[in-house]
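Colleagues,

Please find the record for the two-part complex below.
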Amino acid sequence: MSKRLNVLKTYKLYTGGKFSRSESEHYFQVMDKKGNPFANLCRASRKDMRNAVAAARKAQSGWADRSAYNRGQILYRMAEIMEGRRDQFVAELERTAVSRRKAETETDAAIDRLVHYAGWTDKYSSIFSTVNPVASPHFNFSMPEPNGVVGIAAPDDMPLIGLVSIVAPVIAGGNTCVVLASETHGSIACTLAEIIHSSDVPGGVVNILTGYRKEIIPHLASHMDVNAFLFAADDPGQKKIVQENAHLNVKRIQCYEKTDWLKDNAQSPYYILDFQDIKTTWHPVGT
Amino acid sequence: MSEKETKTEKTLRFDDLWSYDPAPESADYVTIAGKYDLFINGSFQAPESGKYFKSINPATEELLSEVAEAGKKDVDKAVSSARKAYDEIWSKMPAKERGKYIFRIARLIQERAREFAILETLDTGKPIRESRDVDIPQVIAHYFYYAGWADKLNYAFPGLTPKPVGVAGQIIPWNFPMLMAAWKIAPALATGNTIVIKPAETTPLTAMKLAELFKDAGLPPGVVNIVTGPGSTGAEIVNHPGIDKIAFTGSTAVGKSIQQAVAGTEKKYTLELGGKAANIVFDDAPIDQAVEGIVNGIFFNQGHVCCAGSRLLVQEGVSDELIHKLKLRMETLIVGDPLDKNTDIGAINSKMQLERIREYLSESVEENQQIFQTKCSLPDKGYWCCPTLVENVSQSHRIVQEEVFGPVLTIQTFRTPEEAVSLANNTHYGLSSGIWTDKGSKIFKTGKQIRAGVIWANTFNKFDPTSPFGGFKESGVGREGGIHGLLPYLELSS
């Protein structure tokens, strides 16, 4: 009896709501847990990165203008779709990264984290906004607004829950992002892109690149149309480069390396606040 | 209103019909020492180098005092004194006691308010009316506001436990010396940090007076250390390994260099940098009110204001009328002796700053921009600049893109609200913006689209300790004022 030959998936970049190969046609190979070749991932080029930033910029104001309720529904939809494909994520994590038990824990936590942030979209603004009792006859209030386009360097450890934990608060707050996936476990990010793609997330809101940190991160961090950077990889050299390049256009930088993303306290509205600017508005009170 | 109507309209003329008698505030009430040392560990100490620099009155070019120039060794001493005070006293003190010290500081400044106002005017060149009615009252209010936070921090950020950062290094500008010191010192102390602060090179005197006041208040030695000096002293603070957090207010260029310098370290930082605020006047705006707002927006403090409304964007239908009225109003502005209570516009803060303003204006002449200056007569000595409008400019001109930091307003017109927003957002800055319209819905829509940290709708240049202030984009990171102003000085753990 002949054994059925399984169908392999071509993993692609996800930018502007489309799956595509790198314009460079470069690739790199990632291994499974046993050290056997698992997949050829696209080795994103600087041009791929720039295209991704352009897509993120184009999508940003529309995404921020969606109602908070609508953004919440879309994040929740991601959780719904992911729940339906839970076994796929568990299997891929088990094959490429961790034990079956850990793969299940991580996948379940990732789905729950999406639900968590889905519920925050229409609440964080109430938590962080203030009406300020100024001493002059003015009505004065402050509220958070998204930074804009956020560059993200994803962690290698816990590649699924780590990725979901950093992308969810960024987009929950109305930002769009360009993510460079884990260098060692990038395939799971490409699979997550399939969830994003089928969950009513507008194209360009989340852009996912695979490739080498040293080839992409310095340029993403120096890009003048990227407003903020989230660094979650355990890579002190690249972290310093990101912090340095921030000065070119005064990027906001947040570093979350070595976070245990499975912990309950690895989720909170403060992760949303990390990528918000506070805007204060004054108006005279009188006749 | 048509052009014809504008021309026939009766206008009030103030310029040459009468003059005001001098009404100078007496300055001999303030004693200024011939020499000021560094304030380290609760006492005044001579700088290791023995070097002093001059602080002059920009309105008279007369020497006010000589001030110590702090070098590396002095900054070392200041940082270790701040660390010791943090470890041994300030971080162990019950929060309510910490708060009481800050309340005490607020009250002591209030008692000596006029003295501080006069000294601020002497050292900066700003009109006494502003230092007396804006700067110093705001200073007091700021200390009073943050004093109250000291024992209430657990209520500020639900779900998190607040802890101080440690030793804060603070660098402040010359435009509002005493107020910027308050914006930095008050929240840092309330949250339990100790401080090494550097006043600006041209305006160190009120900070030294403040040091005397801290002694009077019984503030424990080392809790606030004041080191005077030029930019190099600031660099010593920024690069010092014993500093946990940097708070800087100043130019975007220096802010960027700080961001670069602290890369790879664990130092937290907040930056409050430059601005190029658009003051947008729609055709349904209350025009007379808008004129007052424009004048306040750009001529307050000689335009030495990071959030100054330095770009007027006016909708075409009202531009002739508005500019006509603006010019008439500008002619009434009194430029001169900052100590005179009638003065509207004082001296430019330094010779260097005056030269920078003149450089922009001479470039405007070369580029065939249209310059209007009022017919003001200027004193012979000191650094002065008449209120200035620059018309016939486009978005790419340097004077539209860059911060002049003087009494210079550019004027552009627009047709649609979309065009106004696009012009307003078309600089690297994003600190503030003004919106003038009678239509509430337009305020909210425009205000949402403008990428700036402060939106003044039908008002401008208003400040309050309860109100968070800070920039979007290259105008800075972090907020000062209000509950949000606590965040930069705390480590929050869950």
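The first strand of chain A starts at residue 13 and ends at 15.

Comments are welcome before we finalize the supplementary table.
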